[in-house]
Amino acid sequence: MICFNLRSASSVVPLPKKCKAFQTLSGKKVLHKPVQVARVRRASVVKSQIRNKSHGSMSEILNIPNLTLTFLKKSASVRSFDRVSVCSSSESAEATTSDGISEVDATANVAKSIMGAGCFALPWAYARTGTVFTSVYMVLAAALCMYCVTCMQRASALALASSSDPQATKDMVTSYSGLATATIGGLGGQVTQLMVLVCCFGIASAYLVFVASTLATVLPPAFTQDKLICAITPVMVALSWLRSFAGVSLISLFGNISVVSGMVATLVYAVKVLGFNWAAVPAVNVAAFPAAFGSVAFLFFVHFTMPPIEAAMARPKKFFSSALQAFLICTLISAAFGTIGAACFGPGVASVVITDMKGASMVAFVKLLLCANLLCTFPIIVRGAFQILEGFMGGEENLSDLTIYGTRTLFVVAAAACGIAIPSFGKLLGLVGGVSCTALTMIFPPLMLLSTDKGISFLEKLW
């Protein structure tokens, strides 16, 4: 027996074997017996088959007043279908993984990728380009970055639909470089692999330098920056050994709490000690846009971290809504922090606002929270690099624990050595952010979509 899918209203479909649910047709309950499920085909093929094989047009079939057994027999020739109705909660679970992370965890991980040390440069950016103008282009930058997320998701779905080996492609698109290989081709994959490696390595070095240099201002002079980098490296190594996103999600939650707490402490100091001075800060200053835009836009340039987060979800199809929530929350928090910080600290605010705070205990507290935030961000940032390195050696599932942990340890130690050789946080971020982060966020996602979707509209191509 077959059952009419009332939700899609596009085809008559056989139900899967596990379905034992009842549906009501013309006031009668019909028990759906087990049947063999046909191979799912693309929607475009299905629609043409339905039109060709049905005895009447779709509108004629659907306009039959009484959905009786005659209707079922009349449409029984339809063999292919676009989708199968979900018959029970247990069947819905088949599309999920029991050990995956939740949507809330995914939102926390994306937010942790965005919220970091860069947030403390926002008051400086707002004081330069104006409170209103900066908020406008921050929202536009976030929207553009979310569009690039949709480009990646659409390209991934199209690559899976057209693949001769869907399982291999599904495994490939769990990393950013694998997604580029599956969509753009081998050369595109190799270029993105190189960029992701350089980006992750540079950011790892920059984080070590930032944490060490920040702690050096709180601790006694005997603790030099180089000594602190060596002391922090074992902690970073331990964080790099995290292989499950369940543990990473907990750390991300703590990191989000730490950075928001640091921002709140900064604003409390600004409002209570300094007070508001709106007249000193412009609402719009377009002339300063080129200098300040990077501090705002780079907050959202984290797309190379997203495919692993999506792949780790119990319900990957919910990733877009999780990412959207993270972008909205981070945009609102960042805009509020930048606006209030600029109004209180004034046009002469430093590029890292905490250096303008007076009072040893308050400054030390905020600095420690910021260091904790960067430590919590580290496992998410370097995950893409580990996927690439382990992929070169045959994949994580084919490697021993000793090989995996040894590779990750060497990566962190090399990043620490680079941090000692180039002891400047700004220079390290400039080297990797200006080229790699921009290309991985704004260039490659649209290329992925253009390479897979041949029916994309002219306006979108132009955009």
Q: What can you tell me about this protein's structure?
A:
Helix 6 packs antiparallel against helix 13, helix 10 crosses helix 11 and helix 10 runs antiparallel to helix 18 (425-452). This protein has helices at residues 43-53, 58-62, 69-74, 89-92, 103-114, 122-129, 131-162, 166-172, 176-183, 186-216, 225-240, 245-274, 289-297, 306-311, 319-345, 360-392, 401-421, 425-452, 458-462; strands at 3-4, 12-13, 22-25, 28-31. By secondary structure, it is mainly α. It is globular and about 65 Å long. The strands form two sheets. The protein has a two-stranded antiparallel ribbon with strand order 1-2.
Question: Helix share of residues?
Answer: 55-70%
Mean pLDDT score? 76
Distance N terminus to C terminus?
49 Å
Main sheet overview: 2 strands, antiparallel
Q: From the structure provided, what is the oligomeric state, counting identical versus distinct chains?
A: single chain
The largest sheet has its strands arranged as 1-2
| SS-based class | mainly alpha
Number of helices: 19
Per DSSP E runs of 2 or more residues, the count of β-strands stands at 4
Which radius of gyration do the C-alpha atoms yield? Answer: 27 Å
The arrangement of helices and strands along the chain is EEEEHHHHHHHHHHHHHHHHHHH
- Which overall shape is indicated by the principal axes computed on the Cα atoms? globular
Low confidence ranges: 1-95
Beta percentage is under 5%
